[in-house]
Specification:
The complex is a heterodimer of chains A (337) and B (281).
Chain A: H1 2-31, H2 37-40, H3 48-58, H4 64-76, H5 90-125, H6 131-143, H7 147-161, H8 184-190, H9 194-230, H10 234-241, H11 246-283, H12 289-298, H13 302-330, H14 332-335
Chain B: H1 7-24, H2 26-29, H3 67-103, H4 105-119, H5 123-134, H6 138-165, H7 168-175, H8 180-217, H9 228-235, H10 243-271, H11 273-280
Helix pairs in contact in B: 1-3, 1-10, 3-4, 3-6, 3-8, 4-6, 5-6, 6-8, 7-8, 8-9, 8-10, 9-10
Classes of the chains: A mainly alpha (337), B mainly alpha (281).
Chain lengths: 337, 281
């Protein structure tokens, strides 16, 4: 337990300079932009003097370092500036959109894990046979289909060709749900609205499946090669000599060791998956961080881009920390140190 | 040499060759200009289905533009971006990986931290932010991909350089009077080359996807250039009426990326000596 806390503390300490660097890089990259946020936030009939006044008000006439210091001081106090386009607090916009994206990402991760681990076991089962090459080829082809192609394919297949599932938004228009947690699946249950819960779940199915499938083949491959490595170990042969059944050897003896590198990879994959929600959200008009980000990018809404970008970064770092802690819990060899 | 001609490598190379030929001879193969609008013939189905027109082999989009021509010209952009961006990312990543792995110490620490910062960003988000700063255009797309994806090369190759640097023949080279640069280029780079080639091929597939994503969002190339991602974005409003307008660019992306992945995967299997030994053992 102490080791886990120690690890988390160390990871937090390294995460802070990373976040700081990311925010600086983002700040500089966004200020390279040849648009003037002040002019964009004014009505079209504003005079040049008005715009100059606005620039001063927004602090844009100050040197870049001063601007960054002002932004950082605000951010540390929870003030991330106002969205130029939506004219609302950027922090509020992000916290309103974040639960929807987390919900989508979590469901996709569950699907990716089930498919990835199941597929990995299947690939391992096929080893040595004629179908091994086929399974191998299958994962290479699966790896070539990015999440947005799955998303489009599912819209065509299950939204248009066989209209069985909804593919726009996150809830049927006939429902209205009181937001308590922001997580629609939880809020509908809290309110006791069974049919709204079913609607939310149906809306989540296609985007989560598209994301999950896209990120499963990498997990399949690592689990398979992890199992192949473990089966070379003497203790597996020893188990066989003791007359333990193959099923028990796989589940009790091989899997706990083979799962460790798989978990580490899944952590990296889930970081990518969280980024992958962006396009899937856009394709399914799903009101999360991704749509917020794309709208902000299209409108060159600098404060909002900066806030959403930083949010993605924080979530990825948190995912990395969680996976590291999980690996530590599951791997006794790391605990001793 | 025999191993180089494995099934994967052959199929992958054949796919890429096919797409390259399409891209190269696009002006000869296409009977229409990709931007030419024909508002009397919008959303025509492919020529072989009922209602199709032989003048438009793969049908037309919502502005009556020839899908076949647009696919061919889209291949030009996709391959151009894939090759230049992947090579750029490879050069940047490889140079940094060799510096970090060979010299170690502070440089290694610094490059390692840079990779860590980059890795804390989902690649899609980072490239979007970069495109905001850089503006649109094919060259900007290439630059964004290079600036995002150099870490893929740097992370993997650094470990390889680290191992190679410990080898006796590297010490021998230094003792016989090689400069650091000579040692790096003549002793260490050849050892990392197989891995580099594999990564390069896989990166080209990734670059095709990133280019499609950026042009889909509308941050990729200028509006008058043809890109597969843009075709998907255009087709989205009519896909219930004309699913083929959506399926064609999707298929083009899929086959190109599969080609690069098969090639990369096949090369990894045949070029990686350790894996070959492990499999025969």
């Amino acid at each position: 337990m102490i080791a886990i806390l120690f690890l988390l503390a160390r990871r937090l300490l390294t995460a802070l300079p990373i976040l700081l660097t990311v925010s600086i890089l983002m700040f500089v990259a966004l200020r390279l932009l040849p648009v003037d946020p002040a002019a964009m936030s004014m009505p079209p009939n504003a005079t040049n003097e008005d715009i100059a006044a606005k620039r001063r008000e927004m602090g844009l006439d100050k040197p870049l370092t001063t601007q960054y210091a002002i932004w950082l001081r605000g951010a540390l106090h929870g003030d991330f500036g106002r969205s130029i386009q939506l004219r609302r607090d950027a922090g509020h916009l992000v916290t309103a959109a974040l639960p929807a994206t987390i919900q989508l990402a979590l469901c996709a991760m569950v699907i990716a894990s089930v498919l990835g681990l199941g597929g990995g076991l299947l690939l391992f089962h096929l080893r040595g046979g004629a179908s091994e090459a086929l399974g191998d080829l299958g994962t290479t082809v699966l790896l070539s289909v990015p999440e947005f192609l799955w998303a489009l394919l599912f819209i065509l297949l299950f939204g248009v060709l066989l209209p069985v599932l909804p593919f726009i938004g996150q809830l049927g228009p006939q429902f209205s749900v009181v937001r308590v947690t922001g997580f629609l699946l939880i809020d509908t249950l809290l309110a006791g609205q069974g049919s709204a819960f079913a609607s939310a779940l149906a809306h989540l199915t296609l985007p989560a499946a598209a994301l999950g499938i896209a990120f499963s083949p990498a997990i399949m491959r690592v689990l398979r090669s992890g199992l192949l490595d473990v089966y070379h170990e003497d203790y597996i042969r020893q188990a066989r000599l003791r007359g333990i059944g193959e099923g028990r050897i796989l589940i009790v003896h091989a899997l706990p060791n083979a799962i460790l590198p798989t978990l580490t990879l899944m952590g990296v994959q889930f970081g990518f998956l969280f980024g992958g929600t962006l396009l899937v959200e856009v394709l399914y008009s799903y009101p999360g961080l991704g749509n917020l980000m794309v709208d902000a990018v299209r409108n060159a809404d600098l404060p909002l881009i900066q806030t959403v970008g930083l949010t993605y970064c924080i979530v990825v770092l948190l995912i990395g920390m969680t996976v590291d802690a999980l690996v530590l819990v599951l791997n006794p060899r790391l605990r001793a140190r | 040499m025999n191993a180089l001609l494995s099934g994967r490598v052959l199929v992958g190379a054949a796919l890429i060759l096919f797409v390259s030929l399409c891209a190269m001879f696009a002006p000869l193969l296409a009977s229409h200009d990709p931007g030419e609008q024909d508002l009397l013939n919008i959303l025509l189905p492919p020529a072989w289905s009922s209602g199709g027109d032989a003048a438009f082999p793969l049908g037309t989009d919502s502005l009556g533009r020839d899908q076949f021509a647009r696919l061919l010209y889209g291949a030009r952009l996709a391959l151009l971006v894939a090759v230049t961006a992947a090579c750029g990312a490879a050069v940047l990543g490889t140079v940094l990986a060799h510096i970090a792995g060979y010299f170690g110490g502070f440089l290694d620490w610094l490059i390692g931290r840079a990779v860590e910062v980059w890795m804390s960003f989902p690649p899609v988000i980072l490239s979007l932010i970069l495109m905001v700063g850089l503006g649109t255009g094919a060259d900007r797309v290439v630059l964004a991909i290079v600036l995002v994806d150099w870490t893929r090369f740097c992370r993997v190759l650094r470990a390889e350089v680290l191992v190679t640097t410990q080898r006796d023949y590297v010490t021998a080279a230094r003792l016989s009077g090689f400069t650091h640069l000579q040692t790096l280029i003549r002793e260490i780079l050849p050892a990392t080359l197989p891995l580099l080639i594999t990564l390069l091929s896989l990166e080209m597939g990734i670059a095709v996807i990133v280019e499609a994503i950026l042009s889909f969002v509308g941050l990729g190339v200028a509006a008058d250039q043809v890109a597969w991602g843009q075709m998907i974005a255009d087709a989205r409003s009519n896909f219930a009426l004309a699913p083929w307008t959506l399926l064609l660019p999707m298929a083009a992306i899929f086959f190109t990326v599969t080609g690069f992945n098969l090639l990369g995967d096949g090369l990894r299997r045949t070029l990686d000596v350790r894996q070959t030994i492990a499999r025969s053992a």
